[in-house]
Amino acid sequence: MLEVQDLVVRYGSAVALDGVSLVVHEGEMVALVGPNGAGKTTLVKAISRMLPVAGGSIRLGGSVAQVPEGRQLFGDMSVEDNLRLGGWASGRRDPAPIYDLFPKLRDLRRRDAWTLSGGEQQMVAVGRALMAEPRLLAVDELSLGLAPLVVEDLARHLVELNRSRGMAVLLIEQNARLALDICERGYVLEAGRVALSGSCAELRQNQAVQHSYLGGTVA
């Protein structure tokens, strides 16, 4: 579904990604974890063609949609209009399937997006991306600024989407515990390079991952 090979991205003279390689297979959930400033958001923007690359390659086996860091909704537009914007490329205009997935949004559909809670806004952001009918969903910081119970509910929806629709998911997270718990494989990005990769079970047992990202203990 996605193959990134030796990717290099620069901001002027600064190298943000330095030879990054990763793979997401069809129907797979893959975690990308690392500290703030590691290059995670740069990578997902490059995958979505929002940034030019200086070297390497990106190969996609189907359409990709991004749930951006911080939601980035149109605050003065209604929930329903935000969702419909997501279907612009696919020609999909009916948000009913999104309301089936997130029933709460049906009741909020006429509300301006800025009036919603953080968790509700994240539902809209995920729903907007799904309106594009992607084969790969790239989710940048699902948990950012949200309460643990809200994050747990959103994560459950992601897992269900993956299982029921076979949609591949690339989950980019500072919350390594969350990402490694719900994904099958993972990559650790540090200073613009892949420091570690493997199954999430293996990464959870890795001492460096435990020390840096899991509070020194195994979940």
Short overview:
With 219 residues, the protein is of the alpha/beta class. The protein has 9 helices and 9 strands.
Describe the overall structure.
The model has no long low-confidence stretch (mean pLDDT 91). By secondary structure, this protein is of the alpha/beta class. 36% of the residues lie in helices and 27% in strands. The chain has 2 domains: 147 residues, P-loop containing nucleotide triphosphate hydrolases (Rossmann fold), CATH 3.40.50; 59 residues, no CATH class. The two termini are 30 Å apart. The longest helix is centred in the last third of the chain and has 18 residues. Helix 6 links the parallel strand 6 and strand 7. The protein is globular, with a radius of gyration of 17 Å. Helix 2 packs parallel to helix 5. A 6-stranded mixed sheet has the order 5-6-7-3-8-9, with helices on both faces. A 3-stranded antiparallel sheet has the order 2-1-4, covered by helices on one side. The protein has 9 helices and 9 strands.
Largest sheet, if any? Answer: 6 strands, mixed
Give the CA-based shape.
Answer: globular
SSE pattern, N- to C-terminal: EEEHEEHHHHEHEHEEHH
Mean pLDDT: 91
Question: Could you outline the blueprint of secondary structure elements for this entry?
Answer:
Blueprint: E1 2-11, E2 14-24, E3 29-33, H1 40-47, E4 55-60, E5 64-67, H2 79-86, H3 96-101, H4 103-108, H5 118-130, E6 136-140, H6 148-165, E7 168-173, H7 176-182, E8 185-190, E9 193-199, H8 200-205, H9 207-213
Parallel strand pairs: 3-7, 3-8, 5-6, 6-7
Antiparallel strand pairs: 1-2, 1-4, 8-9
Helix pairs in contact: 2-5
